[in-house]
Amino acid sequence: MLRAALSLLALPLAGAAEEPTQKPESQGEPLPGLELFRWQWHEVEAPYLVALWILVASLAKIVFHLSRKVTSLVPESCLLILLGLVLGGIVLAVAKKAEYQLEPGTFFLFLLPPIVLDSGYFMPSRLFFDNLGAILTYAVVGTLWNAFTTGAALWGLQQAGLVAPRVQAGLLDFLLFGSLISAVDPVAVLAVFEEVHVNETLFIIVFGESLLNDAVTVVLYKVCNSFVEMGSANVQATDYLKGVASLFVVSLGGAAVGLVFAFLLALTTRFTKRVRIIEPLLVFLLAYAAYLTAEMASLSAILAVTMCGLGCKKYVEANISHKSRTTVKYTMKTLASCAETVIFMLLGISAVDSSKWAWDSGLVLGTLIFILFFRALGVVLQTWMLNQFRLVPLDKIDQVVMSYGGLRGAVAFALVILLDRTKVPAKDYFVATTIVVVFFTVIVQGLTIKPLVKWLKVKRSEHHKPTLNQELHEHTFDHILAAVEDVVGHHGYHYWRDRWEQFDKKYLSQLLMRRSAYRIRDQIWDVYYRLNIRDAISFVDQGGHVLSSTGLTLPSMPSRNSVAETSVTNLLRESGSGACLDLQVIDTVRSGRDREDAVMHHLLCGGLYKPRRRYKASCSRHFISEDAQERQDKEVFQQNMKRRLESFKSTKHNICFTKSKPRPRKTGRRKKDGVANAEATNGKPRDLGFQDTAAVILTVESEEEEEESDSSETEKEDDEGIIFVARATSEVLQEGKISGISQATTVCPALC
Amino acid sequence: MGVAHSHSASEEVRELEGKTGFSSYQIEQLHRRFKQLSGDQPTIRKESFNNVPDLELNPIRSRIVRAFFDHRNLRKGPSGLAEEINFEDFLTIMSYFRPIDTTMGEEQVAQSRKEKLRFLFHMYDADSDGRITLEEYRNVVEDLLSGNPHIEKESAGSIAKGAMMEAASVCLGQMEPDQVYEGITFEDFLKILKGIDIESKMHICFLNMETMALCH
User: Fold this and answer.
1) Closest residue to B162, CB basis, from A462, A520, A581
2) pTM assigned to the model
3) A463 at the B interface (CB within 8 A)?
4) Is the complex ipTM more than 0.90?
5) Which residues on B lie below 8 Å from A464 (Cβ)?
6) What digits encode the pLDDT tens for the residues A167-220?
7) Closest by Cβ to A561, choosing from B57, B97, B177
8) For every residue of A120-144, which 3-state class applies, written as one string?
């Protein structure tokens, strides 16, 4: 595929070859008229190259994943670096000079923000804050420890003569180098840990550390850099103090900037109900603005974006439409993946340019050994200290993984390139060392961490589906623990979390979330709803009967213990859909009241939705309108499923409860699974005992409209649920007017 | 007070240490807190918990308070509520929230885990019949959702039903159409909560405790 790209280039090159032949003719003569073909390379050069590199990277990814065996052994980042090396070699050979490098400017402004934004936005906030103490300790104390010990040890190495004297560096230079090489890199950690799947606590600690240590790295780097520039003789005591103070300023300032932008983002999304189309744009723009603002003020930009993502997520997710949510998620992932790919490739390419680096074995080997050793030592010490306070201690295996997982990456490389050679004469040696370190950690450590994890039997992450019971019990625990803490009078972690939740509920959420979203927001309800939808999807997927316009199979009288019933459950169980809700309860035995309801619905169906308005073309750039059909169908499904799930019959299972009246109710703006929509409309009817029951599409009028919503159809939330198909017994059909059914069929014929 | 009193006090403390597993430092702290709650009386009643202002905001407040007086938790009987509890009972309840000492043997760890889960089970099972019925479950869900005024009562009912169905499918697997599912027994409860790390979730760090002033 690379060849294809090159041949694409070759074609225009051939075209260009024609031009020179024209020139001699036109010498001294007036131009021969309109040129048929002009070569405009210089005009499109920059964007073309960018696009081409990204294309090459993506094509490479495709090629890698063609071989499963390779990708299961070797993490992608390794392959990309190696590819970069190869490409760099090619470019070097062809052009006789290294063309493309990892430019620090490009890196910090364009390549890093998407990755950090993606990780910040999708960070599991509960887990993050639960482990915040550990994360902060490792990020701050750990990085400082690493920086100082590595720098000092290297200086000691130089004093001992193991580093060649042509490396002209003093203690400060080594400290500077130590500060930039000691930071764990978020990009590398993500790339490697993503494929390893350790348990969440371990992952969040290492990953959180890599994000939060940015502040420390930035401060250390800048402080050491300015000290080096001032010259070690001119450094005064106040400068040290200022250095320490700037640590707080940078980190807290960066976090504050992030939170301000998170607030703005949440607030603006509250009002975007009528302009849904710009919602994803807002998310990206404001997050990027947070990054740039922090960068401008020399604060920690990574912290800013992380805090922005963490802070805004809850409110933004509640406010924006489902389509926007999907868009945001996928765009973020795409951008982040693309940026990561490009970074690793460019790392490989940049390594080839030997004019930028100079080799010194002592320095290189020393650095490698020291970073590994001091990291391990640091982790052990800090863990010992932390385990005094932690609820769940970190054991030895966790510590091994943590120290081994401290990967360095592109951030270190970009920082070392930024050094000023006039001020830091040993820059070239540092560059070479950094390259070796980065390559070592990403390739060697990346390759070996998977087998290591397996060998050590590290606890892996378990993906269990959310069950209602667990959600309920988790909430109960939280309340119990908060209560016991109150009783004991101990203002512990749970107490403060509880306070925060109260504050959030009372003030923040009201301010930042749209009223409709705020009303029904509750985690338990979320899980419940999601489970319902999932089961509904699987139900329909299994052949919940779809009405085909060609024929409405009128049912024969279904038997009491209709075969269809048990087969539903069997269906679900066989397919292993893991439905939590036992839909065996869906019965065809209707009580009188339900029959009445069904009849009523048929009537309503006849009266409703008849006038079909034409909506704007969906190509309008300002407004993507829902297909009328889709919306109706969705509503129908939603209503019926809700009804069905409400009417869990006690007769079948002898679970005592008071029969709740199955009142059709709109569940408001909730998450819908757009995929389900497609699935429902394309539901393949499976031939499993459904022949004797008919599927009829019932439409139900929604009783509760949102107060604020203008119920004009065009503005209806494109957020609604899934198309439902209900089954009606023959009794219903006979009682209700058949005409109602045929009307229903005319109204919703596309459901097949 | 006199030497005699302090002697007997330290004996008591040691006795309590043995029974409940708290250290003497923790026992002293808890004793101070107990005195604050009870107003220097030897026993606490339900009303004493009104003195904890922060507890008001808790949606399952009444259940928790009841749990303190539950005979089953106090190990005094199979059912019923005590009128008042003394310091030893108070400590017994608190011992459910101690961190699990991982240096204990496997059995002991499993045992304490079971104890903690049993405490929770008693909270759900209000009528002490050994099963959590749908009614009881629904009450719990209603309590939990009571903080959110916009969710109607029936939603709580449907959620509870959904949870029961889930529990049924977990515990009984395939169910016949006529099979009756009475309610969640303690064994079923254990099964459902198998995945949750009770050690990390259900405990309070008793290390640094500052007793807070009750009255403002």
Assistant:
1) A581
2) 0.66
3) no
4) no
5) 195
6) 777 788 888 889 888 888 888 888 888 777 788 888 889 888 988 888 888 888
7) B177
8) HHCCCHHHHHHCHHHHHHHHHHHHH
